[in-house]
Amino acid sequence: MHDLADIADWLQTHAIHHETPVHDTLPDPVFRVNGEAAVSFSTNNYLALANHPRLVDAAKAGLERYGVGNCESRLLGGDLPVYRELERRLGELKHKTDAVLFVTGYMTNIGVLSTLVKVGLLARIHGYRPKKRRKYAYFTDEYNHVSIREGILMSGADKHTYRHADMDHLESLLKAADGVSPIIVSDGVFSMEGTIAPLPELTQLAEKYGAILYVDDAHATGILGANGGGTSEHYGCYSPAIMQMGTLSKALGAIGGFVALEREMADVLRLTSSAYGFTCPPPPDQANALLAALDLLREEPQRRVRLWDNQRYFVERMRPLGYTLTSTQTPIVPVLIKDAERCQMFQRALRAEGIHVDAIQFPAVPVGQARLRFMLNAGHTRDQIDHVVAVMARLAAML
After folding, report:
1. 380 catalytically annotated
2. 2 is catalytic
3. DSSP-based three-state secondary structure for 258
4. Residue partners of 217: CB distance under 8 A and separation at least 6
5. What are the backbone dihedrals phi and psi of residue 48, each rounded to the nearest 5 degrees, phi first?
6. Could you tell me the pTM of the whole model?
7. Does residue 280 sit in helix, strand or coil?
8. Do the Cβ atoms of 296 and 90 come closer than 8 Å?
9. Widest CA span in the chain
10. Is 191 a catalytic residue?
11. Given 52, 250, 356, 380, which residue is catalytic?
12. Which of 219, 234, 356, 380 does the annotation list as catalytic?
């Protein structure tokens, strides 16, 4: 407790503070704070499904049937058909024969990446004798999510970091790492940049060097591709080398994470990943709600159409204002402010106008690269977009 107490005392006399506002409701994208309406331009609820009546009704039905929590590991305590059906549907969405469900997306990355390099050792304890002893190494994009970095660290394997989306640099690292079994890891959509990973090139390198390619599709699932299938569907790029991770707490509006892969490998992961076998899954009411979300993803493609229409409209209105938009590839459109204090000032000015936008600064992004992370939503109206653009136009003079 000594460090915690000392740092707590130090914080009282230093201007380092992160204010977390308390809201009365959740954004869809409109929410209420202190009894007044506000609009979020930084919610992960991309398709405005989190409050959809069909998801709410499905969750209620799950509560009535199963209660509020699973309370034990699926591996040890038994399974429920709602989990099996959800995994089947998620695998189908990702063009794989199965998926493994975890309690959150963060836990998925930690649980899978810490395990992949150890499955042979765990199997040997039970008598398995491998045809070849492998030494694994991770090759990871410098902008990958912190959960990826922590999962790799927990694995104990060697790590090689390549420059963001730089395939030449990645290949040079793969060539130099002779004698290892490589695992390439990349976000599908980079959450602080808004860029899309070059999946076809990553896949070519994975196949050339015999690597597993692990793609974190947290911000792509439900968003990219004709059916919301993510980066693979966006590019039409499928390969047995690809393992597709996704989260269920963004476009699909609930809670949970998963990795989609072939059924035989999924069974190995269920037996070897502590994050699957030694903890509870998401509550069954959430699994029930997610089945409804997957139905809506198929039945209401107009939600994705509205999302992308809103993204294009926002970008068109923002371009003449003189801001640097770091990427316009996805519904994540970061506006570069650079100075952290000025970025926070912009955030406060927007909040005074009833608009919430995340101010992103170090350590989430490099020092001097602070930004407002705008995230467009299927539920935004043109009037709401016009309002936020008008406020940003007034603030432009402060750059």
Report:
1. no
2. no
3. strand
4. 94, 188, 189, 230, 231, 244, 245, 246
5. 55, 45
6. 0.94
7. coil
8. no
9. 69
10. yes
11. 250
12. 219
* Residue of 314, 307, 311, 308 lying closest to 390 (CA atoms): 314
In this structure, the strands spanning 355-356 and 36-40 are parallel
Residue with tokens 């230093």: 14
- Record the tokens describing residue 15, joined without a space: 């201007």
- pLDDT 10s per residue in the chain (399 long)? 678 888 878 877 765 556 677 888 999 999 998 888 999 999 999 999 999 999 999 999 999 999 999 888 999 888 999 999 999 999 999 999 999 999 999 999 999 999 999 988 777 776 777 777 789 999 999 999 999 999 999 999 999 999 999 999 999 999 999 889 999 999 999 999 999 999 999 999 999 999 999 999 999 999 999 999 999 999 999 999 999 999 999 999 999 999 999 999 999 999 999 999 999 999 999 999 999 999 999 999 999 999 999 999 999 999 999 999 999 999 999 999 999 999 999 999 999 999 999 999 998 899 999 999 999 999 999 999 999 999 999 999 877
Alpha-carbon distance 271 to 269, whole Å?
Answer: 5
